[in-house]
Amino acid sequence: MLLTALLLALQAAPPHCVPEQGLTYICGLVVPEDIEKLGSTGLLLASGHGVRSTKTGYMYLIDPAAGTHAELIHSEAFLQKPDAKAFPTCPGPLNMQAFDVHGLSIAETSRRRFRIYTTSHGEREAIEIYDLDLRKKAPRLTWRGCVPLQQDGYFNSVAQLPGGGFVTTRMRDAATPVTGQRTTGNTGKIFEWKPGGRLSPVASTELSFPNGIDVSKDGRFLYVAAFGSQEIVRFDRHASPISKRTVRVPIRPDNIHWDGYGKLLTAGPKPDGAGWEVLEVDPETLAFRRLGGADQTAAMQAVSAAMRVGAQVWVASNDDRIARFQLANSQ
After folding, report:
1. Is residue 309 part of a domain?
2. What angle do CA 291, 40, 75 make, to 5 degrees?
3. Interatomic CA distance for residues 182 and 178, integer angstroms
4. Segment 235-255, tens digit of pLDDT
5. Is 271 exposed, middle or buried (0-12, 13-18, 19+ CB in 10 A)?
6. Strand order of the sheet with strand 210-215?
7. Domain count of the chain?
8. Residue 2: strand, helix, or coil
9. DSSP assignment of 134-200, as one string?
């Protein structure tokens, strides 16, 4: 079985981790806030947004077929080998006692090799960059560098651009209270970085708590989840000035990612506290449909991301678990 020495097989579910409402859980994780596919490997990668509790970040490699997972950073799978040429402004290696793994962006650089960008808080507000090598039986995760962000801001998500750059959402000022997310007022915007350049704001992208972000393959369109105003926004970077199209959704959308089937997936809580939903969004029209969800009695709330794996949807959260559910009629 894949990664025998590292994978943690799921044991009999403890009382608080039993299936319910069509959901099956993987429990005992440290705030698995974001989740993405690892190309065509059949594997998933989930973040561990631990800065609020453990003060350190985690990264989980999940095998959906086997129902197993492994933590990559706090293990023998992890190295730090900075690339000062690619990331010259990075002040130094990760402080293993004060960093985070929040939003994820994954690009396959060659067969079974991936570059991973993450938003990180803790000792520094930065995009941290890793390489993941899955060519051998045991995985190898290597920290490669960072791009410092504005230290007075709280950045949420990141998406890689063609050519090695990225866009990221400055969700709010660092001093803005989290409870302020229940507002429609603009609190942040998108920033862009290109290799050899500087972090710069993208004009006319102000939103209410801009959260998740992803980008079209050609880099033309940016898709952003505005948590505060309950909107999915598409920005056209080829228009001058930049143009946008918006649709209001029945949840507070958190992360947003391509699902591998030509659609975007987002997930989030209902604003009235009546549970949560996963939505599939058409990238052209922004029309959306509900794929699944749960009511407020489910053990997992505060959902934050979703990813499709065949006929299943895997859902991340700001909790101690990830859920999965079967698509109705194997859509």
Report:
1. no
2. 100
3. 9
4. 999 999 999 999 999 999 999
5. exposed
6. 210-215, 221-226, 231-236, 243-248
7. 1
8. coil
9. -SSSS-EEEEEEEEE--TTEEEEEEEEPTTS-EEEEEEEETTS-GGGGS--S--BEEEEE-TTS--E
Taking each continuous run of H as one helix and of E as one strand, the counts in the chain are 0, 26
Mean pLDDT, rounded, for 82-103:
97
Residue 142 in tokens? 């290597």
Which residues, 6 or more positions from 108, have their beta carbon under 8 angstroms from its beta carbon? 38, 39, 114
Cα–Cα distance for residue pair 226/93, rounded to 1 Å: 32
Tokens describing residue 200: 């710069």
Alpha-carbon separation of residue 271 from 47, 268, 287, 307 (angstroms): 24, 9, 20, 22
Does 154 fall in a domain?
A: no
CA proximity to 145, closest of 72, 91, 193: 91
Whether 74 and 50 have beta carbons less than 8 Å apart is answered as no
The tokens for 10 are 């799921």
Q: Can you say how many angstroms the Cα of residue 30 is from the centroid of all Cα atoms in its chain?
A: 14
Which residues sit opposite 210 in a β-bridge? 226
Asked if 13 and 19 count as a contact pair (C-beta separation under 8 A), the reply is yes
Q: Is residue 247 part of a domain?
A: no
Please calculate the CA angle 317-209-230 and round it to the nearest 5 degrees.
Answer: 75
Range of the domain at 139: 28-147
**What is the helix, strand, coil percentage profile of the chain, to 5?**
5, 45, 50
Give phi and psi for 259, each to the nearest 5. -95, 0
CA distance 300 to 275: 9
Torsion, Cα of 330, 248, 193, 202 (10° steps): 160
Q: Which residue has the tokens 């706090």?
A: 74
Establish if 326 belongs to a structural domain.
no
> From CA 313, how far away is CA 270, in angstroms rounded?
18
Q: Is the pTM of this model over 0.85?
A: yes
Q: What is the pLDDT of residues 185-220, one digit of tens each?
A: 899 999 999 999 999 999 999 999 999 999 999 999
The Cα 20–Cα 295 span in angstroms is: 11
